Amino acid sequence: MKKRYTLEQKRWDSPREHAMPEHTRVPASFTIGNVKIAPATVLAPMAGVTDTVFRRFIKNASQFTAEVNAADVTEETTNQQSGCGLIMTEFTSADGLSRMRETKRKRYLTYYDDEHPISAQLFGSNPETLADSARIVQDAGFDLVDLNLGCPAKRVVACNGGSGLLKDLPQIERIFRAIRAAVTIPFTVKFRMGWNDKHIVCVDLARMAEDCGLNACALHARTREDGYTGQARWEYIAAVKDAVSIPVIGNGDIRTPEDAAAMVEATHCDAVMIGRTAPANPWIFRQIAQYTASKEATGVGTYDHPTDQDRYRMIRTYFQMLVDEIALEEAAEAARAEAIIASGQIAREQRHRDCVGKMKQFASWFTHGVPGGSTLRKQIFESKNGDTVLAAIERFFETRAENPPLAATESEPDEELLTAGAAYCD
Ligand SMILES: Cc1cc2nc3c(=O)[nH]c(=O)nc-3n(C[C@H](O)[C@H](O)[C@H](O)COP(=O)(O)O)c2cc1C
To answer: Considering the chain, what is the average pLDDT of its residues?
Structure first.
């Protein structure tokens, strides 16, 4: 049977260590159109990962310390202190969106007030359909709309979507112009360098984006053929930054605050975007903010590392958020037509299965790097329902509190994390 959250591996190949540059910092803020983003950090869109629960979780991550209860965190505090300036939805098909009924659309485009500023990412290849979908996004209250020109998945590329479009700049221009004419909210594009090394188009594409009135661009510094292999080639982010005056967001291989600052120094990008590190280390945005502030104040950059307690609270909080979200969805569904209620049981069972699937996935990511974590992961993956997952976690952390390990290692994104997002890769 096909596993829902499993696909090709997307790990880092022998990641490069970056020393913190002497002077450069991740900027305190930047502006996309009329939207101020502070600090200049962006959670990368990740299919199968960055749904509303995860996005709010990242926004709140900096609050889950031993001293602060998630329940005590207000929306205002979250926005000011999250350390993550901008969040994005996972990619959404423009074709699908324009065909869907209103109610279903709402489910795809669900977000909550504490998620602002938030950007919705679309993919597709038809200018009119993309323009229609961008209007839907704007009407749904999103602050920005983003076009995906990076997705390497075969079934997306086969329809000329995602990175498939990188081979057809004239069509990209038609799409840029159609979306630009359709909406007034800031419009951005996220792209790879090109299809392959013989066909690098990122600088031309960024110039075209600027000419067509886009407000910012984000480059994942790899080609489609690179997939996730090798090192992201930050020199291409620098080349794009040199070529345009709209803000440039750098993306690829940021694992630590030092990496983030090193990318800014090497490329002069206006902001950094972080993908795979976020689910394994949801504290990364807060760590960047701490590192930047302490470096500013004392000349020495420091940042907190999550304790066992933090990790435990985080897993519990995330699971609670998943369960709460189901309750909200069910309440909304119960309020809808009789016909939906009739088919509700199947939908309900599917949602609960999905919820346990996500619990397993996230528990696995968060416990990576924790001594003894592999035993816990095994227990979790053998669990049949949410209660047994939670019981395994309780037992694990209780035992650790009684017999603390000698040393904890840094959290490392694990294979399940890097294979998440079934929709995004082949
Ligand atoms: C599981 C997974 C799903 C992804 N889904 C999307 C997506 O929906 N849209 C998109 O533009 N990029 C997507 N990406 C690519 C990331 O946004 C990002 O560009 C890439 O992971 C490189 O950044 P990183 O080195 O910080 O992870 C996905 C990546 C992963 C690992």
So the answer is: 82
Q: What is the pLDDT of residue 177?
A: 98
* Higher-confidence position of 84 and 332: 84
CB atoms inside a 10 Å sphere around CB 102? 7
Using alpha carbons only, what angle is made at residue 81 by residues 75 and 85, rounded to the nearest 5 degrees?
95
Helix (H) or strand (E) holding 120: strand 118-123
How many Å apart are CA 175 and CA 134, to the nearest integer? 11
Maximum mean pLDDT: which of 98-107, 222-231, 358-367: 222-231
Give the nearest ligand 1 atom to 232 CA: 25
Percent of the chain at pLDDT > 90 equals: 47
Average pLDDT over residues 44-48: 94
Contact residues of ligand 1, CB 6 A cut-off: 10, 44-49, 90-91, 121, 148, 150-151, 190, 220, 251-254, 274-277, 420-421, 424
Cite the DSSP H helix spans in 62-160.
Answer: 75-81, 94-99, 102-108, 127-139, 154-157
Nearest CA to ligand 1 atom 4: 46
Coil, strand or helix at 203 = helix
Residue 398 CA to ligand 1 center (angstroms) comes to: 35
What whole-number distance in Å separates Cα of residue 269 and Cα of residue 292?
16
Beta bridge partner(s), residue 188: 146, 216
* CB of 162 closer than 8 Å to CB of 149: yes
315-345 CB burial, b ≥16 within 10 A, e <16 = bbbbbebbbebbeeeeeebeeeeeeeeeebe
Instruction: Check whether 411 has a pLDDT greater than 60.
Output: no
Find out whether 118 and 42 touch, Cβ atoms under 8 Å. Answer: no
Most confident of 197-211, 294-308, 381-395: 197-211
Q: Are 125 and 159 in contact (CB under 8 A)?
A: yes
Distances (CA, A) of 154 to 166, 195, 224: 14, 13, 11
